[in-house]
Amino acid sequence: MKNKKITIIGGGNLGQAIAKGIVNSNVIDPSNLTVTRRRVEFIKDLTKSGIHITSDNKAASTGADIIFLGVKPYQVEDIVTEIKDCVTENTIIISLATGVDSLTIEKYFDKKLPIFRAMPNTAIAIGQSMTCISAHNAGEDQSQVVLTLFEQVGEALIIPEELMAAATVLAACGIAFALRFVRAATQGGIEIGFGADLALKIASQTVKGAADLLINSGTHPEHEIDKVTTPRGVTISGLNEMEHQGFSSSLIKGLITSFNKIENGK
């Protein structure tokens, strides 16, 4: 992996997060990583880590072993048209574009390539992403390369492509939903007496601890909830009030709304 030449086309928030995560994990030498953006001044800080930056997508793609398409869905066709003559049949393509399937990407390239769709979240910058990946025209070795790449920056799973839209909602959108919970808990903490900074610290660590508890123990959330709810206790009173106000149903509706947005484009 160290000697792989990797290009990230599209140095937006996600592209930069991936670049930083890859470099921080030491999975490749920074000199083998190139990030492109039309206005390179917005990504100049990446050079401090030894990453190459450029606005020339074709030059960055030439000779690359792995190319990330870190652009908006409506930009994919134009970008692929621009670089398709620079890739070979062994170039691994990893698309981060929501809602653009592998067959469509293959059609744009007009050649058979190993194409992966990946949906990390922004926690990739600190090596804590949950990345879901689908594979098309890919061999086992190529799939392992991509899986290993993302495993260096968090957890990664290979899933059927038909679940990629759902994975986008649960993992990528999901990090924003989790952060909104932390914000709400912080605001509640302020109302019951904590300063803003202290409330945020307590809420953030509590959520981290809850997640780690499930990951490390492999138990169901309700099992852990039962441990802290006692008859006529303060925890169950608070939980029941949240449910009366639609806490779980509003979260589920939010997930479904985001999913329908991807599926229907509305």
TrEMBL record:
**Which pathway does it operate in?**
Amino-acid biosynthesis; L-proline biosynthesis; L-proline from L-glutamate 5-semialdehyde: step 1/1
Which Enzyme Commission number(s) are on file for it?
Answer: 1.5.1.2
Q: Which residues form the Pyrroline-5-carboxylate reductase catalytic N-terminal domain?
A: 5-98
Task: Please provide, alphabetically and separated by semicolons, the GO molecular function terms listed in this UniProt record.
Answer: pyrroline-5-carboxylate reductase activity
Say where the protein is mainly found: cytoplasm
Q: Where is the protein situated, by its record's location annotation?
A: Cytoplasm
- Annotated residues that bind NADP(+) are located at I9, G10, G11, G12, N13, L14
In terms of superkingdom, the source organism counts as: Bacteria
- SUPFAM superfamilies reported in the protein's UniProt record: 6-phosphogluconate dehydrogenase C-terminal domain-like, NAD(P)-binding Rossmann-fold domains
GO BP: L-proline biosynthetic process
Entry keywords, A to Z: Amino-acid biosynthesis, Cytoplasm, NADP, Oxidoreductase, Proline biosynthesis
Q: Which Gene3D superfamilies match?
A: NAD(P)-binding Rossmann-like Domain, ProC C-terminal domain-like
Q: Name one GO cellular component term.
A: cytoplasm
Keyword flag Metal-binding: no
Binding positions (NADPH): N57
Which segments constitute the Pyrroline-5-carboxylate reductase dimerisation domain?
161-262
Listed under catalytic activity are: L-proline + NADP(+) = (S)-1-pyrroline-5-carboxylate + NADPH + 2 H(+); L-proline + NAD(+) = (S)-1-pyrroline-5-carboxylate + NADH + 2 H(+)
What is the recorded function of this protein according to its Swiss-Prot or TrEMBL entry?
Answer: Catalyzes the reduction of 1-pyrroline-5-carboxylate (PCA) to L-proline.
Question: Which family does the similarity line name?
Answer: Belongs to the pyrroline-5-carboxylate reductase family.
Q: Which HAMAP family match?
A: P5C_reductase
Q: What is this protein called?
A: Pyrroline-5-carboxylate reductase
Q: Which organism is it from?
A: Plebeiibacterium sediminum
* Gene that encodes it: proC
